[in-house]
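Thread: Newbie trying to understand structure tokens

Hi all, I'm a second-year student working on a class project, and my supervisor (Dr. K.) asked me to get a predicted structure for one chain before our next meeting. I've only ever worked with sequences, so writing a 3D structure as a token string is new to me. If someone could post the tokens and maybe explain what I'm looking at, I'd be very grateful. Here's the chain:
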Amino acid sequence: MPSPSDQDPSTAADRPGEASLPCVMAFNANDPSGAGGLSADLTAMSSASAHVLPVVTGTYVRDTSAVQDHIAFDEEAVTDQARCALEDMPVQAFKVGFVGTPENLSAVAQITSDYAEVPVVTYMPDLSWWDELAIENYLDACTELLLPQTTVLVGNHSTLSRWLLPEWEGDRPPGPREVARAAAVHGVSYTLVTGINAADQFLESHLASPETVLATARYERFEATFSGAGDTLSAALCALIAGGADLQTACAEALTYLDQCLDAGFQPGMGNAVPDRLFWAHDDDEAEAEPGAEPASDSTLDADDFPLDTTRH
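---
Reply by user tm_fold:
Sure, no problem. This is what the structure looks like when written as tokens:
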């Protein structure tokens, strides 16, 4: 039998089923609780039929209740991981989660700027567990270095509002267009704002540009507290964009996928619930619910129905 080095690489690449998945590079921290971070990226993106190139930027020290600490890799280790993989495989999208330090943000921004044609989905998690000065330095670096490279910024309404509109003094909270406008000042094309309080115990998510709200999804407030929902949503969105879906369709499918992950969520420990990102794999009859697959029934969100989606969460 010939060794791998003796085989014609073009022959291997032409085999049916090989090289058929879009590649997505995810920069994120390891999460030993399995709730978010690279765990969420790997399972959500795989569910959306993407091949994940996970770049470890550090690790949380956490359980399902709270983050206790974070240990960051140095920027050289982050850069070496990414460059090595990128020299071998083309990527169709980048996802950037929490990378730990301004230096790592700089390294990631340099890499994404070298692939300017590749869309970047940036997710900003809640950093309230962290030191106040560290938060300020990290957000400042993200504003200066990464947002100019960002195609879609994803985050909770309160997190994005405090970051992008710190001096807001209106009688009402800033709306999705106002958050999108604040992000656009720094180069962001689109903003997906989640967790907006609505009437009758509903929460809304809005995909917005500075000019308009492109789509709205409404969810009934869910009593359980989840860890990892934001990473799950942003990872699914990024993978669907990499697979060729237009932004509104990708957003609709990612929000529906998150809703189903939360509906199937479970509590593995003594803390918060965790989304079941592989809910579709537990029953062959539910395989159609995989993001990007054909709807299983008329009740499943269709892209033509968006932004009129109303679901249970």
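A couple of things are worth pointing out once you decode it. Residues 1-13, 285-289, 294-313 have pLDDT under 50 and may be disordered. The longest strand covers residues 51-62. Feel free to ask follow-ups in this thread.
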